[in-house]
Amino acid sequence: MPVIETVGLTKYYGKTKGIENVNLQVQEGEIFGFIGPNGAGKSTTIRTLLNFIFPTAGEARVLGLDVVRQSREIRAQVGYLAGEAGYYDDMKVKDLLAYAARFYKQDCASRIRELVDIFDLDVMKPVHSLSLGNKKKVGIVLSLLHQPQLLILDEPTSGLDPLMQMRFFEVLQEENSRGTTIFFSSHVLSEVQRLCHRVAIIKDGQILKIEEMEQLRSNQFRKVRIAIDSDEFNGNAIPGVIHAARENGIWHLLFKGDINQLLRFLSEYKLVDLWLEEPTLEEIFLHYYEKEGAE
Amino acid sequence: MTILRRELGSNLRGLLIWALALALLNFWMVSIFPGMAAEGAKLEELTEMYPESMMKMFNMDKLNFSDPLGFYGVESFFMVVLFGSIFAAILGSGLLAKEEDEKTLEFLLARPVSRGEIIRDKVLCWVIYMVLFNVIIGIFTWLGFEFFDVGAFSRATLFFLVLAPLFVHLIFGAMGFLSALFFVRRKAALSMSIGLVLGLYFLNAIALLSEDMQFLGWFSPFRYMDAADIVNNGGINWTYALGLLLVAAVMVAVAGILYRKRDIAI
Fold first, then answer.
1. What is the residue-averaged pLDDT of chain B?
2. Residue A295 clears pLDDT 60, i.e. is over it
3. What one-character DSSP code corresponds to residue A238?
4. Are B2 and A103 within 8 A, CB to CB?
5. d(CA B247, CA B244)
6. Please, what is the Cα angle at A23 between A22 and A24, to 5 degrees?
7. Contact by Cβ (8 Å): A76, B112
């Protein structure tokens, strides 16, 4: 039984499309990446799974339960980390954690202590006085304190400093090795690459592609800029180049493939300068997945 | 029940401020009555100088100012009804709207709690609060009547005078719940529900002023719990009371149904 299964899931806000015909299957024990630019429909999908919003068409099941009719049972076993959450202003961190814990049947106190230690949280502070990163840490603890079977994380790393991000990923891997399934939404390709087994790519409310991480890793995208005086040089002629354009004497390339081959090719020319960068997801989408999706 | 416990605690200060302010005001009003009654004749003269419209608006044409209950009916009753209704509206709309406005609803909805349970706890908190609100004011008022030398009065009628506002409060609180569903922003919901209280209060006032406009009063909840009617009949009209309860219950039920079907757009 898949942990998350959506069939033709569609959500319109009035006439505005949120998501359309989303078909996903997330298996037990998987870390599943859900990636797409801002406004692509990631949060809409997640909110439908948790029944914050109602689907316009199609259906979805989480842990074998219907997202509309059995939402309460689903949420007892799911940990959710919101992209940007609001917390009660009149509470201290410990009050908020205790309030959350009261909703669950099991005793969460020892797990809360563990998590507070790991993330180095000051529980005596009022929630409203916390920085963005610390609020995120509170959100992480809230999503984990009841030892859920499924974690749904919406842009979990925004606002976290690199050290905390590392700890957070360690905790996620630990959770995963205990059997927790993780649904990880993000617009940063590299963090999904580090963690996930499979990844679904969403754009404009539609799933463009579902790929094994191995596959995606072999698709090493690089943004290449080349300053060169020669007019004979043609960026489009390089094997592995997906997109090339010349601007003010500088070639802008999007490259996918073995970086050594690229360097061998370039060694034939006299370059003025060379830059290699990780492309943003938007750039990859624009030149790669959109073309594939259109086919 | 987890949400109920939390709401009962976190709104307590507001309840105490509103209830005690009105309770002490009532207590003070009752305390000045013996002095005013002693100068009964002068009082009558004074009230005769008031314009007729004002007499009608405050029920002074139908109530005897030198009677303690009549005095209470003119001076205090409308404040408890009116300000209590504003409190009920603020509480009703705020209980629901604050979760959406402050984006805490996602926190709540991520827990294993159904929307029905959320609104049930909020409504329960509000009902308990409105009852407490009127009990606090009622006790202080009654103590005033017993403590100060106000002369003879009917305790039963006094009981109905302090009970009657509750029915009106419940109507406006229920309107608050409904308005919170149509206005996501807490301030908008608040303005809407307070606007309704004041608008319907003035509608009733207009109805009291002129024979031609009398029919308008029936569109205002205030018409159904009128101090002059209560004092002169020695009780409330139970048909009206149950009618108000029923309308409030229907509005809360509609709010509950809408809430369960609603897209939470934060």
1. 90
2. no
3. S
4. yes
5. 5
6. 115
7. yes
Q: Which residues of B101-119 are buried (b: 16+ CB within 10 A; e: fewer)?
A: beebbbbbbbbbbebebbb
Distances (CA, A) of A269 to A98, A238, A262: 65, 12, 12
- B71: which 2 tokens? 């005095």
Rounded-to-5 percentages of helix, strand, coil across chain A: 35, 30, 35
**Given A85, A86, A100, which is nearest B111 (Cβ)?**
A100
**What is the tens place of the pLDDT at every residue in B79-121?**
999 999 999 999 999 999 999 888 899 999 999 999 999 999 9
For β-strands A271-277 and A78-81, DSSP reports them as unpaired
Q: In the numeric block, which tokens belong to residue A287?
A: 């030149």
User: What distance in Å separates the CA atoms of residue B8 and residue A289, rounded to the nearest whole number?
Assistant: 53
Residue A173, helix vs strand vs coil: helix
Task: Calculate mean pLDDT across residues B131-157.
Answer: 93
The minimal CB distance from B264 to the residues A52, A72, A84 is found for A52
pTM for the model: 0.85
Closest CA to B92 of B201, B168, B22, B17: B168
Average pLDDT of span B30-43: 80
Q: What percent of chain B has pLDDT over 90?
A: 63
Mean confidence (pLDDT) of chain A: 89
Q: B236 pairs with which residues across the strands?
A: none
Confidence of residue A288 (pLDDT cuts 50, 70, 90): low
Q: Please give the residue of chain A at the shortest CA–CA distance from B100.
A: A86
